[in-house]
User: Fold this.
Amino acid sequence: LKLDQTIDADEYLDLSSLSNFRYELLDDIDYVVFTAAVSSPDKCASEYDSCWRINVTGTSDFIRQAINRNCRILFFSSDAVFGDIPGMIYDERSDTKPLTAYGHMKKAVEEQFKKELSFKTIRLSYVVSSRDRFVSYCLNCISNREEAEVFHPFYRNCIIVDDVVDTVVWFSKHWDEYEPPVLNIAGIELVSRVRIA
Assistant:
């Protein structure tokens, strides 16, 4: 069952207005992969209240209803919850001190449900794919023979989308085998945008 605001969704879901959502659709669902969010850090900062309604209020309401219907929730969070210490590779025990509005929003949801046995968080770093925003921009520059503008220094523990998919599938089959409430999904080295370009 795909819940979204797109035409190919099985059911329409608007996290800013859940009053008409039919929660009974979740009654026969065992496992929810929750990826929805306003993920633009700039938008979360400039439109804080409306993004909070989606990323925290609406998200939390949906998750609570799903948990009440015995769904397991795998929540997609971000390494933005850690803040930004240049050169630091974080692990699950690292302090969370978000600096951005987006990081604060993700942490708020994590904190609210971290003691729920049917809620787990995966914290993603930068997921590299041929369709991510930065790689698409670089490929477009190549096609148009334009020089790319690359912000530096900017380092992330990059991973590929296949690693994320493998993790989601693993949790669907082995939920109880991983007891902690959070798992970082990140690469083992810091990679700069210059290197990606």
Summary: Helices lie at 41-46, 48-68, 101-113, 133-143, 161-174, 193-196. Residues 48-68 form the longest helix (21 residues). Residues 105 and 111 are 10 Å apart (CA to CA).
